[in-house]
């Protein structure tokens, strides 16, 4: 029986990216200021080397748990995925064989207290999918979106695909704000493997939580 694991981080040794948000900053401004840094992570998902072994913990069979006690978030990811360093992300795990199968978190400082201050569900999810998380020239399709309340925090969760000339990337996203930090969690796979990975990645996306 596969045993789940936990990776605990205290936030030291990894600087949190900071942006000087104005009180009236819009989601459009957020997209313009952050797209370059986040896209470095999206474009470099297949690169990097594995670091940081996991330690034992209780959880869901077939999954490991990442828990960051510094930036105060946690999530599950499939057993066997490896952590790699990608500039522009706070953490990123990927499958060693299928490079598009990933789970990552980006953390950006903000003056907002809730993601709703950037706009409603439709506006924010559309902006993130089309302007922040996808390179130019790709066809983006929003499949579904919902607002979730958990522990007094509001999450915008959505599913979308981004198609280029070589493949279609299928992604699940959970975004929220807590204690002056904007968190964007993304887990993805190649569309051709979605029938294999879709249910597992939905469990991964649902597990993302601010603590």
How would you sum up this structure, described in words?
This protein has 211 residues and is α+β, with helices and mostly antiparallel strands. Helices cover 20% and strands 37% of the residues. The protein contains three helices and twelve strands. The chain has helices at 27-43, 121-132, 194-207, and strands spanning 5-9, 55-56, 63-68, 73-78, 82-83, 91-94, 102-109, 139-150, 153-163, 168-178, 181-190, 209-210. The strands form two sheets. Strands 5-6-7-11-10-9-8 form a seven-stranded antiparallel β-sheet, sandwiched between helices. Strands 2-1-3-4-12 form a five-stranded mixed β-sheet.
Label this structure with key terms.
alpha+beta, 3 helices, 211 residues, globular, seven-stranded antiparallel β-sheet
What is the fold's blueprint, element by element?
Blueprint: E1 5-9, H1 27-43, E2 55-56, E3 63-68, E4 73-78, E5 82-83, E6 91-94, E7 102-109, H2 121-132, E8 139-150, E9 153-163, E10 168-178, E11 181-190, H3 194-207, E12 209-210
Parallel strand pairs: 1-3
Antiparallel strand pairs: 1-2, 3-4, 4-12, 5-6, 6-7, 7-11, 8-9, 9-10, 10-11
